[in-house]
């Protein structure tokens, strides 16, 4: 069985208006950023939007494996629902 491996993480950057949070999704094989999202708040929607972008742009045909640091955003109900929905469409 073939797999698509993504990794996700969040970083923050100081700008004149305050902190800006950036969530990225990287394809482990190509090492390219395949999804991202920015926000002034570090909510679950930040990581959900980044993963949604990656899935929408790449539309992986193989089984999707996503690694993260298991922070609060990645443990949220919204994120878990998104992951579950991805697995149902394999």
TrEMBL record:
<dbReference type="GO" id="GO:0003676">
    <property type="term" value="F:nucleic acid binding"/>
</dbReference>
<dbReference type="InterPro" id="IPR012337">
    <property type="entry name" value="RNaseH-like_sf"/>
</dbReference>
<dbReference type="GO" id="GO:0015074">
    <property type="term" value="P:DNA integration"/>
</dbReference>
<protein>
    <submittedName>
        <fullName>Integrase catalytic subunit</fullName>
    </submittedName>
</protein>
<dbReference type="InterPro" id="IPR036397">
    <property type="entry name" value="RNaseH_sf"/>
</dbReference>
<dbReference type="InterPro" id="IPR050900">
    <property type="entry name" value="Transposase_IS3/IS150/IS904"/>
</dbReference>
<dbReference type="InterPro" id="IPR001584">
    <property type="entry name" value="Integrase_cat-core"/>
</dbReference>
<feature type="domain" description="Integrase catalytic">
    <location>
        <begin position="1"/>
        <end position="90"/>
    </location>
</feature>
<dbReference type="Pfam" id="PF00665">
    <property type="entry name" value="rve"/>
</dbReference>
